Amino acid sequence: MPGVRVWGRLLGVNTAVVESVEFDEAEQVLVAAVRVRRRDRDRCGVCSRRCPRYDAGRGRRRWRALDLGTVQAFVEADASRVRCREHGVVVSAVPWARHGAGHTRAFDDTVAWLATATSRSTVRQLMRIAWPTVGSIITRVRADIDARVDRLAGLRRIGIDEISYKKNHRYLTVVVDHDTGRLVWAAAGNDKPTLAAFFELLGPQRCARITHVSADAAAWIARTVEQYCPDAVRCADPFHVVKWATDALDQVRRQVWNTARRQPGGSHKDRRGRTASAGAAQGLKRARWALWKNPENLTDHQRHKLAWIAKTDPRLYRAYLLKEGLRHVFAVGGQPGKEALQRWLAWAARCRIPEFVKLARTIRAERAAIHASLDHGLSNALIESTNTKIRLLTRLAFGFKHADALISLALLALGGHRPELPDRTHT
């Protein structure tokens, strides 16, 4: 049989004294009886301060350890309670497990590492645990990392956005650091109180150090940033601004299509008896991608489609040119971009297309933020990339009951402080 020290290393409890190791024939598991060393006894499970002993608690307790080959292993020890001046009567701390956990630290760290690196089914089958248990574990590991690492240190330029993570309009507000590319904070909700919680956590001194904030034109973001970081430069996201123009263009396209299909010969009954577009209406219905795509990405067929639109409906083609004109503003950037934006606003104001006249008023209201984006070249491209990765994690996290588990998984995977496998040295 291996020695006491060897068993401690195998089970990940080398900070404790292994008293005995037995194989439970009834449950077919390995059980190691351990005890806490004298210097680690009678400490609060929350703050680790030495406290007076309260009672013996509920007797002996087991913690799931890493499997030994194909056999499940458990660590068993007394679980006494202490009276802490700050936290009251709590179970005393044990060095091999986190407070309130039913697994050892080595087990938790391994599960958290697997959750950020592999699929859900792999974690469940390899570690032989339920998926909701994985959510609890990664939440504990993330809290442990947050206690050691200040994710908000050194923030200067940040990006703020919202992302849907569940049906029925469930959203997360996420904040990324433009300088490091890391996700630094996330919370459930997409309103001013949610974002205000981030700035409250940041504190007045560090809020004053924020120099640039990139975001879309959501009013709740703009008002919160202005309240907590009045000196920060707010940069409008070019993608969202161009998307406004694309949405206005699509409104015009639908209007033209509806008008065309109401004309004689504009629709017919298909084989199932449903009304389908015909003639020019059919061509307009299938022109969406030709109007949406950037000119350099168009196929030959889509270029012919645009040429046909220019001949058949000059108003729709003018709306397309307005969309491309706004995209050109951000393509050139800097002072040329500002001058191009001024010309675009004058053109949109007299284009006689209500959707773009309204868009011009919106852009005038956001002109300062757009100018800042043109000057500094700051956009939400980084945060959109982060959102894409969070969407992938959302599919992986399907089955978690609470958003905290998803947020913990996102911070572990994208926050720059990934969990490490236990007892591994990196060269």
TrEMBL record:
UniProt protein name: Transposase
Highest taxon, organism lineage: Bacteria
Source organism of this protein record: Amycolatopsis cihanbeyliensis
UniProt xrefs under Pfam families: DDE_Tnp_ISL3, HTH_Tnp_ISL3, Zn_ribbon_ISL3
Transposase IS204/IS1001/IS1096/IS1165 zinc-finger domain mapped to chain residues: 42-87
Span of domain Transposase IS204/IS1001/IS1096/IS1165 DDE: 158-407
Coiled coil: none
Domain Transposase IS204/IS1001/IS1096/IS1165 helix-turn-helix, chain residue ranges per copy: 93-141
